[in-house]
Amino acid sequence: MNRTAQGFRVLYGHPPEGVWAAPGRVNLIGEHTDYNDGFVLPFALPQRTEVAAARRTDRILRVHSVGTASGTVSRDLAELDPVHPPQGPDSWAAYPAGVAWALLEADVPIGGADLYIRSDVPAGAGLSSSAALEVATALALDDLYALGLTRTELAALARRAENAYVGVPCGVMDQMVSACAVEGHALHLDTRTLAQRHIPFDCASAGLRLLVIDTRVKHSLADGAYAERRAACHRAAAALGVPSLRDVPYGDLERALARLDDPVGRKRVRHVVTENERVRRTGELLRAGRLREAGPLLTEGHLSLRDDYEVSCPELDLAVSAAGAAGAHGSRMTGGGFGGSALSLIDADAEPAVTRAVTEAFVREGYAPPRVTAAAPSAGAARLH
Ligand code: ADP
Ligand code: MG
Question: Using one digit for the tens of pLDDT, what is the confidence trace for 122-179?
């Protein structure tokens, strides 16, 4: 029995029926493309959220997460209400409760359950602890109640929980990679069709390493700016007469830009269209085993996010420039922006030097030192016990 199962037994007085896990993620490339029906190329992290769970005979969902201040939170499945999800110290319970709500909304027959949650995905670092929690919960309920849902269906339900119950307008990338990733691979995902391709991404054999640089800042602009960028993209797509910016081929970019009056809208479109192209090129390089050559595309993507999409921040820019100066092949902010984490592709033996250079640069600027960890593309959600 692992620690999560033991924690369940101590708390609830009997062993769980199983333990399920789902990972956090970083997006190698394809940022702010998912709500434009575009392409993304994320991979799963070794850090994951574990959920030990057992069915109940009534319709109560009890959730407990190690490290939260709220103790055990109880919800009646009949009273889950997306308009008034939990507030205050219980607010985190909206994630697992939202998954139960989304299942019930889809007429999937579930009963009550006790959940004991333990995670080493840092929360709020842009590494998708939220999707890890949702997907682990969804997989646990799927197994416990023998629902037989596919990974794609579970990811869609988890996303619906976050959108409609928690109230966060995220795309489907995070849940899809957490649910579907394969160890040693990045997930090439078409966010319109949900077609997926697992592309070998074996950095270690290529003598490379991926560093995740968590800036440990989250600027308050993030939520408002995200909604504003989505709206700007939808306006631009309407002005161009296409369903979404995904439908602007890279080869038509200049013509499309010439048809837009709004200079800010033009920049947003340029980011999305060039970013989709960078995902395509990065995927091709990975498939060809030319991993090192993907580095410059990462840095190009960062500059596009900084200058055209305007969602970076000084800490992320500093992480990228300091890593570059210390010899990284390429680096970029990853996630929504305005804080969170940057990703850097480096030679394996450069890890100490790059980590030191980035940390020193932060200290020189008077920023708190970042949390730097190496990340290997890891497995998606699974039952552990
Ligand atoms: P990210 O997904 O990038 O980590 P989010 O703001 O989307 O950031 O999600 C973080 C929130 O998800 C936390 O504030 C908390 O409410 C919830 N959460 C994530 N993981 C856990 C966990 N293991 N236990 C309790 N709540 C969690
Ligand atoms: Mg999240």
Answer: 998 889 999 999 999 999 999 999 999 999 999 999 999 999 999 988 889 999 999 9
107 catalytic, yes or no? Answer: no
pTM of the predicted structure, to 2 decimals: 0.95
Does residue 27's CB lie within 6 angstroms of at least one atom of ligand 1?
A: no
| Residue from 351, 356, 368, 354 nearest 315 by CA | 368
Q: Quick one: the chain helix, strand, coil %, rounded to 5?
A: 45, 25, 30
Q: Ligand 1 in contact with 65 (CB < 6 A)?
A: yes
Which residues have beta carbons under 5 A from ligand 2 (an ion)?
128, 130
**Cα separation, 175 vs 154, whole angstroms:** 8
Give residue 266 CA to ligand 1 midpoint distance, Å.
Answer: 34
Taking CA atoms only, the protein residue closest to ligand 1 atom 15 is 92
Cα gap 53→144, rounded to integer Å: 8
- CA 34, 373, 300, 128: dihedral to nearest 10 degrees? 10
* Residue 334 beta carbon below 6 angstroms from any ligand 1 atom: no
Q: Could you tell me the residue ranges of all domains in the chain?
A: 3-199+379-383, 202-375
Q: Is 128 in the pocket of ligand 1 (CB under 6 A)?
A: yes
Q: Which fold has domain 202-375?
A: Alpha-Beta Plaits (3.30.70)
Query: How far apart (Å, rounded) are the C-alpha atoms in residues 98 and 76?
Result: 12
Q: Whose CA is nearest to atom 20 of ligand 1?
A: 129
Strand order in the sheet with 371-374: 330-334, 339-347, 208-218, 371-374
pLDDT digits (tens, 9 = 90+) for 31-88: 999 999 999 999 999 999 999 999 999 999 999 999 999 899 999 999 998 887 767 8
Give the fold, CATH level 3, of 3-199+379-383. Ribosomal Protein S5; domain 2 (3.30.230)
